[in-house]
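Cross-check.
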Amino acid sequence: MRTDDEPREPVAASDDAIALMRSHLGGLLRDSYPEIAALDPASRLGEVLARLTLALDAAQAGGDVSAGFKADLIGAVPRLRRYAQSLTRHGPDADDLVQQTLLKAWEHRRQFVPGTSLPAWLFAILRNGFFNGRRKHRLEVPDPDGTHAAGLANAAEQEHKASLRDLQAALDRLDSAHREALVLVAVEGMTYEAAAGVIGCPAGTVKSRVSRARDRLALDLDYAVGGP
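Predicted model, tokenized:
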């Protein structure tokens, strides 16, 4: 018997549809989480980031890390905050999760393989930390996923139908695993293969989940979805 997690064909939207869903819904979803736009330097995460930046400067001067590693790590913080927010659904918890991720990335910096994707490595650390925390503390979290969205073509013509409230409600109705695949591929811009590495499943399963999430959103929001 086939399950929702098994690959199905056809699943992929056109490149134009993927680009459109990223630019349109990605913008809407960023607007729905305005606290992610600016980090308070006086917050715990802001203080950790400041100390980490100094440590990275010293490590770079000593040849312990490359300039690219430092730039990419600091540059990934907004994306990490957005992904953490989609998992925890709570701003302070999300920033705590990002703080733990950054500290673990610093602690294990020598395990990163140059030439591979640093954001994917960081996303995997964050995701593992989230689920390990749930198991340890038995936290009740609504959805272990990435709550961003996609799969829409002709979005400009239909934009009036996608209020943030309607969009968030439609996202909340998605299966959590499908939402997670959606945020990684459609909003964070990862390939199916890279997202599969973060989630820990075959790339075909990621494609299937993205397609199912896209189809469900299209149904709920009454959009026209780009075909294969």
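The first helix runs from residue 15 to 32. DSSP finds eleven helices and no strands in the chain. Passed to J.P. for a second look.
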